[in-house]
Specification:
Shape of chain A: globular
Number of strands of chain A: 26
Distance between the termini of chain A: 49 Å
Structural class of chain A: alpha/beta
Number of helices of chain A: 12
CATH architecture of the largest domain in chain A: 3-Layer(bba) Sandwich
Radius of gyration of chain A: 23 Å
Oligomer: homodimer
Largest interface: A-B, 59 and 58 residues
Number of domains of chain A: 2
Helix content of chain A: 25-40%
CATH topology of the largest domain in chain A: FAD/NAD(P)-binding domain
């Protein structure tokens, strides 16, 4: 028996988010050698990350080691998982560069490197207003929120104490609405009577939004219901406000009162940034070496089949892709932009894998079609909005308690791994009955508040739909 | 109705460990004003901290917010909880100084500030060999262990790869034995087949001990059984070894082979320090202002009733106290030193509270009597040693599977809070059935590896007994 050289095509997948994970699974039985690279050792269920930030869930409840999730695929022998940071893509050379200088070459590349938060050119705001994309972000926000109440309890100066008891969330997309609603619940219920010098119920939660409404991606009816539910939870919602400065003293913004334009300053030491996202810096790498076009948010403009025009062996999926949906039943309809949501990322991951296999067989690729099963957003205890797109039947829209229960079970259903689902269910049942948030512990670690840079103003396209 | 000045005595309690928590509970119904100060916002169930470090449990499973644990006591109105670091005690002035410069005065002080790890004068070892006292320590060790396998997988150089796959635990007390046994289990089972370039089963776990045996505080029979169980788990146990250097290349130690003295170097990048503990730096503060005597490990030598000779209004409890146990049934017997274990800390906390109330009533105080219900130490999957002291009956000693089950249920029983117990039980049942360690996720935070200074060589007195 002589050993034969391995002629299987080398497939490199960057990022183990919703898209990358689906692509790996879809390719694991194919005659290819896959290398999956991620900066972290875990896949993160990002739709529930705000629960880690607000101490409702522990990090392991919403994340799982990549090697564990893909243990069966790894046993097939054609998958290598590397924890590494890709610092550059060299599409001309068909290779990527890792943080330690190692260069890996590929025959096919799938880039699912995701997005980071964007401060619209004001990166100096980052230390005062962390965004929520990673577990480190969530721990940082948790430490700030819990620490703010502790500082208020120790504070003798009433003005300074009021600043510690003020919380500002910038951006009223789904993440901002969830954060604001949950912060209000913590102040009103979880911490009630647990302090002696302050009354946590007097804490102020302000939700600032640039546009005229909350949850702007939803239909006006649900947007209005969300606003009412936030009000009921004692969140101070202010729309039509443009943030002009964030520093250690608080948030400054321009607003309107009738026709009068006002400049307001909210004194606070705890700001959460949920206002903008930008594509991963690897997009710029593709622009430089593959002549890829980037949109305003730094996302890579892809062909209908998710590949790059000049480099069909490169595909971009998930939040990094500026993709469109093509409806084969209506070939002359205008293609619609795909939102940056997890079901879209999963669907792109599966199509990228399928198109890659089609290319190997010299078959034509297929355009991306986003199947939108609807959107849902939670607001707080017993408050959520749901907008389902049911085939044939049409739209079903509801809000309130039933929407909240629907949201809860949908999210638990889609959580990776049985154990996590069970633990999350127990955690939530317990939290619901007792108002206690069990993960309210802060380790003595230093804060991590580094953040990436990014392009101009736009609302976060991070609606959280089904599936 | 006229308001009367509050003449209740001011009781200050430093530290919400096992001792401080018991003292607060015992005083919460007494006519005193209590202020409890802790550096963190949580009480930590330290005996299970190694499970967080080895990714078996999440941090919230073994810790709970102090304000939540004491919510009923807080409602009584005489307890204030502050999250703050006490930087100095001024016993002459009857006050303490906080990190922000605030000074709090007291009528009675109970100091339960605990211990930190001691590098025997080699604080330069700290960055390479973190100890295990806080949640931050546990996250640091978890990140190092998981990161080491990830680095090995990426490493092309076989020598360097072997260093990444070598793990050294210094100190074979209960913490060191638990860490070594669990690291071996991770390499042999949890990670098996989850890598492509390395075989995790070839990882090497070395347990270095200065004395001649492991678990030196146990009877020789159980010590020997522990050594055999470690060997079965594939831990390389080396006793009679004195560590002389730890740096980025590995651990250097002096050992013996027959009569020949050898100097060995173990190439590794992952070292866990479980060899020595030292009293909190606040002990030095008491030495300076209350003329308190410190022992070799920096612990405060206390009177039989746990108070200080020149300052009876100051009591020291828990790991910071160099206390003795007095047996009232044998008044002429030599008092025995109290080990640094959680049952002793709890008992000291209760006695300090009782003696404080006796002083308020001008009654004589009582000496400390340590009730030792026995010791247990776990080694790994289905391996533990138990040494019970049963009244009248005498000692019951056993090891192996039954000891492990006994250890498991004893620890779950003593965990704070029903919810945590349930979640820990589910986590362990799941881990036992699947070999998976669910908390194997590492956030992208920077490492925190600062550590405190300390005195000369001695073994860790951190046996983990019952009760």
């Amino acid at each position: 028996m002589t050993s034969r050289p391995n002629h299987k095509p080398k497939v490199l997948i960057i990022g183990c988010g919703f898209g990358g994970l689906e692509a790996v699974k879809a390719l694991s039985k194919a005659p290819v050698n896959i290398t999956l690279i991620d900066r972290t050792n875990h896949h993160l269920f990002q739709p529930l990350l705000y629960q880690v930030a607000t101490a409702g869930l522990s990090a392991p409840a919403i994340s799982a080691p990549i090697r564990h999730i893909l243990r069966r695929e790894m046993k097939r022998g054609n998958l290598t998982v590397l924890q590494a940071e890709v610092t550059a893509i060299d599409a001309a050379d068909k290779s990527v560069v890792l943080d330690d200088g190692e260069r890996l070459d590929y025959d096919h590349l799938i880039v699912g490197a995701g997005a980071t938060h964007s401060y619209f050119g004001h990166d100096d705001w980052a230390p005062y207003a962390p965004g929520l994309k990673t577990l480190a972000d969530a721990f940082d926000i948790r430490a700030r929120v819990i620490g703010a109440f502790e500082r208020a309890e120790r504070c003798a100066d009433p003005v300074e104490r009021a600043a510690w008891m003020s919380f500002v969330v910038v951006g009223a997309g789904p993440t901002g609405v969830e954060m604001a609603g949950t912060l209000a619940e913590i102040a009103q219920h979880t911490l009630a009577q647990q302090f002696r010098r302050i009354d946590s119920k007097l804490a102020r939660v302000v939700l600032l939004e640039g546009s005229g409404k909350v949850l702007g991606s939803f239909v006006p009816e649900l947007s209005q219901r969300a606003r009412e539910q936030l009000k009921r939870l004692k969140v101070d919602v202010r729309t039509g406000c443009k943030v002009t400065a964030i520093d250690e003293t608080g948030v400054t913004y321009e607003g309107h009162e009738g026709d009068v334009q006002l400049i307001n300053h909210l004194p606070t030491h705890t700001v959460v940034w949920a206002a903008g996202v930008a594509g991963s810096p690897l997009g710029r790498s593709l622009a430089a070496t593959a002549n890829a076009e980037l949109d305003r948010a730094g996302r890579v403009v892809v062909q209908p089949d998710l590949s790059l025009l000049e480099h069909p062996e490169v595909q971009v999926i998930g939040d990094l892709a500026a993709a469109h949906s093509y409806d084969p039943d209506h070939p002359h309809a205008e293609p619609t932009p795909v939102p940056g949501v997890s079901p879209a990322a999963k669907q792109m991951g599966r199509l990228a894998a399928a198109n890659l296999l089609r290319r190997l067989k010299h078959e034509p690729t297929e355009p991306f079609r986003y199947r939108d099963y609807g959107s849902l957003a939670t607001i707080g205890r017993r408050a959520a909005v749901v907008d389902l797109a049911v085939p044939v039947f049409g739209a079903i829209r509801f809000s309130g308690l039933f929407a909240w229960l629907f949201w809860l079970f949908a999210h638990i259903y889609f959580l990776i791994g049985f154990r996590n689902r069970l633990v999350v269910l127990i955690d939530w049942a317990w939290a619901y009955l007792t108002f206690e948030r069990h993960a309210r512990v802060v380790a003595e670690t230093p804060r991590a508040t580094e953040s990436a840079s990014a392009p101009p103003l736009q609302d976060a396209p991070d609606t959280q739909p089904l599936a």
